[in-house]
Write a structure and sequence with these properties.
Rieske Iron-sulfur Protein, 2 domains, Alpha-D-Glucose-1,6-Bisphosphate, Chain A, domain 4, 25% helix, alpha+beta, seven-stranded antiparallel beta sheet, globular, single chain, five-stranded antiparallel beta sheet, 381 residues
Length: 381
């Protein structure tokens, strides 16, 4: 059985090595494990100074996903949102490229746009009437003759890049961005193979929680709780605490078996057997995302600190699906299908995971290892 022999429904591949590994674990009652126990200092969840360093050294230095490309589909479209360090406008340029602008007039700091999304050709500050082009450059200073020249440093641009269907940003003006280098060859190739740029974001939601962002993320890298927290939903379908993990350093791909995989406990599936319906493929995309791959959609969960207050965070949730015109479905059926998926996602994540926010081991160690490295300290073992 070759690694390229097994494919899921549609275009979503399941490597044969993952299938073999999961079946071996199910037959032996085992799972992938770390070499030892990682002991975390509770201060990483409670110390405001650590929270400040994370916002500066992680979100102000490395690329992270700010949106899906389909959320700003046409030239002059914009999306307003809050990042860990800045409120921003994600703007589709007339040439279809992307710019991410600080949503703040450089004169007195007033917002340039209050709407969550929109379409415009110029951003104008409502306070003193300064205006900016869609690329972030200063367009006009009102009463320039009597006001004077504004001087240097009036640009609004954050480093951004569009890749694999996502808009990535470093939340610090003047920083460098290289998404391919950040992802590394393994994860970059995996994301390229998924062709998520061909999908659309059916729905996105933001959910605030009075908890540290790392505790939030821990809960969604944890397969140890499935049977206990989700007994009537995911627990009916997915085995608890059984993983195959590919650790790529900054990022990981991990797989959990659905209970339907049990039909092959006695003998391996044939090379041409579609496997996507029997395996849950997920990804930790550093520094703050979990990407869930299902047979016919993707679900992206992103976790952000809100401020230097370590007890505040929010999660963004996106459902990425095939566009209507590629499915052969009529619009009411397409809408009903994805509304139902969104409702299930909300029920499981918000209704069952959020109240507990507890953690498990291998993936959580990888996550905390990378956060500690980016923050500039070590992970105690």
């Amino acid at each position: 059985m070759s690694d390229t022999a097994l494919h899921g429904t549609g275009s979503l591949p399941v490597p044969a090595s993952i299938v073999r590994g999961l079946l071996a674990h199910l037959r032996a009652g085992t799972t992938d494990q770390c070499e030892g126990v990682a002991r975390l200092d509770p201060a990483i969840f409670t110390d405001p100074e650590i929270a400040r360093r994370e916002r500066e050294r992680i979100f102000g230095r490395v690329p992270f996903i700010a949106a899906h490309s389909s959320e700003v589909p046409e030239p002059h479209d914009y999306l307003a949102k809050r990042l860990p360090r800045n409120e921003v406008l994600i703007v589709r340029q007339p040439d279809r490229s992307i710019r991410v602008l600080v949503n703040m007039c450089r004169h007195r700091g007033a917002r340039l746009a209050d709407d969550a999304a929109g379409h415009c050709r110029v951003f104008t500050c409502q306070y003193h009437g300064w205006s900016y082009n869609l690329d972030g450059s200063l367009r006009n200073v009102t009463f320039r003759d009597s006001f004077g020249e504004p001087g240097e440093g009036v640009g609004l641009v954050l480093p951004a890049e569009e890749r694999h269907g996502f808009i990535w940003v470093v939340d610090q003006p003047g920083a460098a961005i290289d998404v391919a280098s950040w992802l590394g060859p393994e994860t970059d190739a995996i994301l390229a193979s998924y062709r998520m740029g061909d999908l659309v974001c059916y729905r996105a939601g933001t959910f605030a929680e009075p908890v540290n962002w790392k505790i939030m993320h821990d809960a969604f890298l944890d397969g140890y709780h499935i049977k206990f927290v989700h007994p009537n939903s995911a627990g009916r379908q997915i085995h608890t605490n059984t993983y195959v993990i590919e650790d790529h350093g900054r990022h990981c791909r991990f797989a959990s078996p659905r209970k339907s995989l049990d039909r092959w406990l006695e003998s391996d599936p044939s090379d041409d057997e579609p496997m996507a319906g029997h395996i849950m493929l997920s990804h930790f995309i550093g520094p703050n995302c979990t990407l869930l791959q299902l047979a016919d959609n993707y679900q992206l969960l992103s976790f952000f600190p809100v401020s230097d207050d370590p007890a505040r965070s929010h999660m963004e949730m996106r459902l990425l699906v095939p566009p209507l015109d590629t499915t052969g479905m009529d619009e009411p059926a397409w809408t009903e299908k994805w509304d139902k998926n969104w409702d299930i996602l909300e029920k499981v994540l918000l209704g069952e995971d959020f109240p507990l926010l507890r953690r498990n081991e291998v993936l959580n160690q990888a996550f905390h290892r990378e956060v500690a490295r980016l923050r500039g300290d070590g992970l105690k073992r």
